[in-house]
Structures are given as C-alpha cells and as structure tokens.
Amino acid sequence: IPIATGSEKVAAEPFNQASLPDFGTRHLALWEKGGPIYDILGIPSCITNSTVTFENEGTTHATVKVVTGETINGDDLTDESMPKNPTREGYTFKGWNTQADGQGETFTGDSTVSADMTVYAIWEKDTSTSTSTVTFKNEDATHATVKVETGKTINNDDLTDESMPKNPTREGYTFKGWNTQADGKGDWFTGDSKVSGDMTVYAIWEEKPSSGGGTSGGGHAFIPGIPPALNTKDHYQYMTGYPDETFRPDRDITREEVAVMFSRLLTQRPEKNKIYDYDFNDIAPSRWSITPVSYMSHLGMIKGYPDGSFGPAKSITRAEFAAMATRFAELTTGDAKFNDVGTDHWAYEAIAKAATAGWISGYPDGSFKPDQAITRAEVVSVTNRILNRYADEKYVAEHSEEIMYFSDNKPQHWAYYAVIESTNGHEYQRKDNGKDEKWLETNDKSFID
Fold it and tell me: Whole-prediction pTM value?
C-alpha cells in the first residue's frame, strides 16, 4: 500500500488486510512531522503545523513551528521551542505581543497558535541605567565631558568616577558658572542640576573691575572678641540679580546666600577656593558656597542647629538675620520692644540691639514676626543701614541710563532705592548730616567675584 507524504509516494510492503484488527474506522492515519500528512487512502489528515515569526525592531529574530491549535510549550514538536529573549542596550525587554505597539495580546510559549502569525518584541527604555553626556564648553572649546545617569544629577548618581569639572580660568575675568545658553540667559547648571538627556552648558564670564573693593586677603588673624570689620568705605556692588534680569525683591533669601553676602563685605575676605574649618554636617566640600560658608563659620559669624546642620538652602528668618548681622558690630543692649518677641525668645537680645541701632523695624501692629522669612528687599534695606549706604535719589533720576535696573524693581516698590544702592557701584561724597550721599559717578566696581 503506498503511503503519500505531500506529493511524494513511498513504496510500502504489501500486507494482508485480513490480518489487521478491526479498528472500527474507515482507514488508518499515518503521521509525519512537517505535514500535511496523507493517510492510506490519500486523504489529507486534520493535523497541520503553523509558523510563528518573532519580529524585533523590523528584523526577524526567529521562526518557530507549532502544531496548529496547540502551544509551543505543549505540542509534540520537541525540537521547536520559544526563542531566547533579544537584548537591546538601554532597554528592558517586556515580552512578545501580537501588535507592534504593544496594544495587542501578550504571546508566550503557552499561547495557543491557530494559524501562521507574527509577534513583536516590546521594549521599555531603562532610565535607571541609561546615561547622558554633559558637554562643558568654554569659549568655543570643549572644557570637559561628563557622563551622568539619565534623570539624576552629577553629584548624586551612581557614577562615582564622574564629577563636575574643575572651574576654568580666564585672565582678567571672573568665572560666574555654567549656563544652558552661551549668553548666560538660560538656566544655571551645577552638580545638583537634573540631567534628562545629552546637553551642552557654557562657561559664563564677567570682566573684573580695574580695581577691586576691599582686600581679597589671604590667611588672616583675628583678635578674639573683636568682630571682623565690614567695608563701610567702598560703595561697590554687593548684590546682583538673576539671569532673566530680575531682582526678585520679595523673594526669600537663604541662609547660605546671606553668609556669602556678608563674606563679600568684609575688609578681610576669604581666600578663593579655600575651605576653612567648619563643623556643619550638611555642607559638602563641593558645594558652591563652601568657601564663604566655611570662612564665616571659622570666624564664628554664623551658627548652625543643634543637630549639627547649617541648613544652607533654608530661608533665613528675620530673627536669624538679626542675630547674624549684630555679630558684626559692638552694639549696646537695646530696649526696643515687640509684642511677639518676649525676653525668653532666643534672639531677643540681638533683635533689641538691632532695633535700637535703627537697623531693623517692626510692623504697624507692634510685631516683629521673628520666625517669618526675610526677603531680598528687606535684606538689602537693612544691610545698607548697617553700612551707612543710601542711594542719591536725584542722581538716579538724572542718570537713568547709567543705572543697573531690574525689570521687577519698579519706582513704586518700597525698596526701589535700596536695591539700586546694593547693585550699583559708585563714587560718592558724604553730606554734612553724616548719612546722605552725593553720588559723583557710577562704576563697575564690585565685591562680587
């Protein structure tokens, strides 16, 4: 009896039908892998195979045959099995799906196959392990490139052998920092800036004034009990605004920003890039303010909290500012009273001294609000009084083209002239009353470097 597999006929040994047992069927089926299979009467059997094509990113990863109506894991084709999962750098393989966009049905080795079909590899970007490159540009040249885990910061990712580059130097200029725009009008970039993808940042420079204010100084010896002196003679710029040309007078100011401001105003200033002795547990050596903060701590001009922290990024309160400011002068004990500052308040003495000296004042309701955050406008107003600096309002009005203005510091703002005084270097003469100034000219001299 011939046996047919496909179109090929295979000779078989003759047999005696009478010798066959009665199976109660019309014919016997003979099976062969690869189908379709023909039985002894030449009728195709009902068993067929289907092909599953596994596609990965537009290419065929594998093809697997499976008995139609069964699963790859459960059919009798033992030499056919699920393919090994593909790999893709920076991505996690999520599985196979009947649609390329992953919106179909998930396909596994236990999925029933009813006909030839194609399934697709589905991927998910692995942000936890992918990296981005930050390119640091300085005057059209590449200063450094740093890899960082995408979605993290240079200071806080797990790439411990990658760190912020050393600041560049340029003769006659002061390095102001890195910015996302070459003109300095973008976002400032530091080691704590989040990196979402490859990016380029640019060195921003400021030309140094022809002569500096005060002394930049080296290591200084201070006499215990005598506070460091503030520079009340030179009326140079000591505050600045933001890259978007705003001053944000009503914005809170942080504890480290105030420490930095006062360090600029000392007659004996800290050495650049030097780290002085300090005990704060939340100030890293890489922090932008490490030199002035450690210097001010070394001098005993700033204090921390009982837990050993300084809280550099915390908004400084009115009481904290009064306490810091009064350490720069030997003031007599004051008798000023505020209805919300009792004698048991930790800053009572400092607040009373500062109020008696005319540095600070309270509110119409008789309160001082010691725990309220102090604003940038309030800080420059008080600091100007400490330094005996008062803007020449007539000069400002008549020389508006010379003045550094900020878009949000309007004449109607109560601290309008205080902001101008703090942000514009100028030559002056003191009037006979010992307070008012006659400005002679503005200049580019600045305590900021």
Answer: 0.52
Question: Which burial class, exposed, middle or buried, applies to 176 when counting CB atoms under 10 A from its CB (0-12, 13-18, 19+)?
Answer: middle
Overall size of the chain counted in residues = 449
Cα(51)–Cα(65) distance, integer angstroms? 5
Q: Which pLDDT does position 422 carry in this prediction? A: 97
CA 187 to chain CA centroid, nearest Å: 11
Q: What are phi and psi of 182, to 5 degrees?
A: -65, -25
Residue type, 94: K
Q: Which of 317, 383, 379, 322 is nearest to 355 (CA)?
A: 322
- Which tens digit of pLDDT belongs to each residue from 335-356? 778 999 998 999 999 999 999 9
Q: 204 vs 153, 168, 338, 380, CA distance in Å? A: 20, 10, 46, 25
DSSP 3-state of 320:
helix
Amino acid 190 reads: T
Q: What is the pLDDT of residues 158-196, one digit of tens each?
A: 787 788 898 888 887 878 888 898 888 888 888 888 899
Residue 300 in tokens: 């005993």
Mapping DSSP to helix (H, G, I), strand (E, B) and coil, where does residue 298 land?
Answer: helix
CB atoms inside a 10 Å sphere around CB 289: 19
- 113, 68 Cβ separation under 8 angstroms: yes
Cα(163)–Cα(170) distance, integer angstroms: 22
Q: Give the span between the Cα atoms of 359 and 357, in whole angstroms.
A: 6
Helix or strand run (H / E) with residue 260:
helix 255-265
Q: What are phi and psi of 143, to 5 degrees?
A: -80, -40
Helix (H/G/I), strand (E/B), else coil: 118: strand
Instruction: Return the HEC string of 12-58.
Output: CCCCCHHHCCCCCCCCCCCCCCCCCEECCCCCECCCCEEEEEEEECC
249-304: per-residue pLDDT in tens? 999 999 999 999 999 999 989 998 899 888 888 888 889 999 999 999 999 899 99
**How many of the other CB atoms lie within 10 Å of CB of 134?**
22
* Residue 406, helix vs strand vs coil: coil
Q: How far apart are CA 149 and CA 129, in angstroms?
A: 7
